[in-house]
Amino acid sequence: MTTEADRIADPWGERTPYDRGTPWPARTDRHLAPGLTEADVERWVQTASVLHSNGDAMDIAVRHGRVVGVRGRAGDRVNRGRLGPKDLYGWQANNSPDRLTRPLVRRNGRLVPSDWDTAMDRIVSRTRHLLDERGPGSIGFYTSGQLFLEEYYTLAVLARAGIGTNHLDGNTRLCTSTAAEALKESFGCDGQPGSYEDIDHADALALFGHNMAETQTVLWARVLDRLAGGDPPALVCVDPRTTPVARRATVHLAPRPGTNVALMNALLHEIIRRGWTDPSYIDAHTVGYAELAARVERCTPRWASRICDVPAPGIERAAEILGTAERLTSTVLQGFYQSHQATAAAVQVNNLHLIRGMLGRPGRGLLQMNGQPSAENTRECGADGNLPGFRNWQNDEQVAQLAEVWNVTPDRIPHYAPPTHAMQMFRYAEQGTLRMLWISGTNPAVSLPELARIRSILGQERLFVVVQDLFETETAQLADVVLPAATWGEKTGTLTNADRTVHLSDKAVDPPGEARPDLDIFLDFAARMDFRDKDGGPLIGWHDPESAFAAWQRCSAGRPCDYTGLSYERLHGGTGIQWPCTAGAPDGTSRLYTDGFPFAHPDTCESYGKDLVTGAPDEPVEYRSLNPDGKAVVKAAEYLPPHEDVSPDFPLQLITGRTVHHFHTRTKTGRAPELNAAAPDVWAEMSGAEAAALGLHAGDLVEVGTRRGAVRARLRITPMRDGVVFVPFHYGYWDTPAGHRPAADGAGRAANEGTITDWDPVSKQPLFKTCAARVTPVEPGTGTERHRTAHTARTARSAR
Ligand SMILES: Nc1nc2c(c(=O)[nH]1)N[C@H]1C(S)=C(S)[C@@H](COP(=O)(O)OP(=O)(O)OC[C@H]3O[C@@H](n4cnc5c(=O)[nH]c(N)nc54)[C@H](O)[C@@H]3O)O[C@H]1N2
Ligand SMILES: Nc1nc2c(c(=O)[nH]1)N[C@H]1C(S)=C(S)[C@@H](COP(=O)(O)OP(=O)(O)OC[C@H]3O[C@@H](n4cnc5c(=O)[nH]c(N)nc54)[C@H](O)[C@@H]3O)O[C@H]1N2
Ligand SMILES: [Mo]
């Protein structure tokens, strides 16, 4: 079946029901520019989605050297041909007339068009000057979860061994550093245990703080198809809002934001009390169970019901589903990762799977999800706070191994302290020790918390800011040099999705004007800086995507993310392949931990663990005595109240997140007419009871204010907990009249005007989902706005 339906009204498309344990049927989705048919397409070029972490495989349609549409790849293991709304329409951003086509440099306070030599000279001379005057610690790199593996790896080598700075992180810090950290805490190492195929086999699915229906629409279609087929799974949803996931749930728990640990402890309490654990699995494969059992002993459902404001019988019912399932698959995402006690909460989901022996078998799946298309690569390549190949900065042997791969002495690779996290880099810039920040593929002037602060940091005279992007974003407007980048469809590289599936994305068309692939920009910089290895050869010996991939393969050898069995050739034509892929496992590996936890061993682990309350790293000796044989670590955590709780002045909890039609700061989806029309401006959501209590109506213009800033938005009434206000975080100001820029009083339309500068102590991920707020009326809505809100709610309902 090939479908070209209106995927704005129905994001998930037609059902293809299937029974438990059978393969998910194919359905090929396609969208071409108006008036074109497949006969008009000159070439189809293979790629995968870059607008979420699902890794939906597709072909780009090319005509007259331009992208004119997309079609899902039915043979791919991830999506079996399906595509979501952002993928069907988002490609139009490639052709946007306002793409950056030339480098820009700041002259007399203004960004003016320039050329590559001038722009790169400015960067290189500033870099050399800072290295001479202040040393490598004055230079930082802030990258993305949206470039390709080859680009991150190159950046990691040039930053860590070339410049010699410890200040390299990705926006993955805002996204899934908690996923990585939770996996390290429990299994000694990052790396996704489960596989999407677990959904085909599960008899129970649990989604923890994950609105999969809107954020991974194709994976949700897979769940909907299971729900429509024979022997459907039970579904547990944990989310304060009545999301489309919640509407389909067998049990929906809507906890007070920030209380996930209390809820998880009560679920674990019930499972232990009712005897639903797997004692032989616990004995054979874990350490730390006794401490967990003691920790949750008094965490009854009644106890949690008071903290989470969830009825105790609901918790008991959910515990029964989780506790009695034969094949439990869980997913975790931002409702945990960006909320209070993020890592501690995510680790409790790992504990649930460990004490029930729910790992390493079909349907026994655990997915500490990713968000961005190539976040996995940022992490494995060490372009965030890890060393490449999931190597442990505290383990000298692993650092020495990396030094050998790079042919440098170990002291060239900074490892005297944990790699600097993004929030700390911005702090260093604020304090003035960081003097140059090179930002690639991310838009922090919209996506970081407390935007007034971020704008003032990036706007400082003394900080030299380089921005590498497709568009003149809010962040680019604050830069000293702007480099025009090529993007998806205009360059070749690989990307790895949330279930470890590696896809090749081929170049389909030329980039506009002088825009260049990020890889070429990083290689050009490395060449101009003339970085050398210890024998005087070039530090970076590769010159194109395929040779960069080969270099990465050598670095990954023997590590959990082993790519040595892959090649561009193998990734061509067929389906994506899951790492580890080696000579011994040439077709990849569907599940990790089918037989123990090899990377939890003290010699091989990526991390010795951290204190779940303070985040202080444990010492190697502590870890070795806790876990001498390398088993999974069951790590208990105590519930603690949120840092910023409600008060009489700020009586509501603000949570921020996503809507199905937009991706992040909308630089791509805001330029696709169908997606923009579906959600053109920011709004705020509240429950009917909460709005009534404040005397507000749907359609009213309100101000959602916190101690730091405010957003003005039209109000929508949607089902969710009372006491909560939700604002999508997608809206910056690039597409609004100048008057819409944040006003002098800070009121804008970016949710992050109001969010708090605070992060999880363990993963250092910012807490975008828990702060105190108030909602005040600005101007009553008109009749049509009230009607529009009602209509939107109706569409969402009928689309279930
Ligand atoms: N349409 C769309 N899809 C996307 C993206 C996008 O921008 N748009 N971005 C991609 C990326 S990078 C990411 S990271 C993912 C994110 O995907 P998700 O995590 O699914 O999306 P969010 O909306 O950020 O948050 C999920 C849910 O967390 C709930 N929540 C808030 N606070 C709490 C809490 O304290 N406890 C619990 N249990 N739940 C809470 C919110 O109500 C929300 O429904 O989506 C990816 N896919
Ligand atoms: N309040 C609140 N804030 C949040 C979140 C939230 O839920 N609430 N979620 C957080 C999360 S999970 C995430 S992932 C972040 C996302 O935050 P950002 O990363 O800031 O958001 P994007 O809009 O995806 O920015 C990516 C930028 O890269 C550019 N780009 C795209 N492709 C390429 C390429 O190939 N090369 C180059 N050089 N540039 C490219 C795009 O034009 C865009 O400007 O936001 C975080 N911020
Ligand atoms: Mo993300």
TrEMBL record:
Biased composition (Basic and acidic residues): 1-18
Domain of life of the organism encoding this protein: Bacteria
Cofactor(s) needed: [4Fe-4S] cluster; Mo-bis(molybdopterin guanine dinucleotide)
InterPro entries: Asp_de-COase-like_dom_sf, CT_Nitrate-R-NapA-like, MoPterin_dinucl-bd_dom, Mopterin_OxRdtase, Mopterin_OxRdtase_4Fe-4S_dom, Mopterin_OxRdtase_prok_CS, Prok_molybdopt-oxidoreductase
Domain 4Fe-4S Mo/W bis-MGD-type as annotated: residue spans: 42-98
UniProt keywords, alphabetically: 4Fe-4S, Iron, Iron-sulfur, Metal-binding, Molybdenum, Nitrate assimilation, Oxidoreductase
A Pfam cross-reference name: Molydop_binding
Positions of region (Disordered): 1-25, 777-800
GO biological process annotation, one example: nitrate assimilation
CDD domains: MopB_CT_Nitrate-R-NapA-like, MopB_Nitrate-R-NapA-like
GO molecular function, one term: molybdopterin cofactor binding
Residue intervals passing through the bilayer: none
Similarity annotation: Belongs to the prokaryotic molybdopterin-containing oxidoreductase family. NasA/NapA/NarB subfamily.
UniProt xrefs under PANTHER family: NADH-QUINONE OXIDOREDUCTASE SUBUNIT G, RESPIRATORY NITRATE REDUCTASE
Name of this protein: Nitrate reductase catalytic subunit
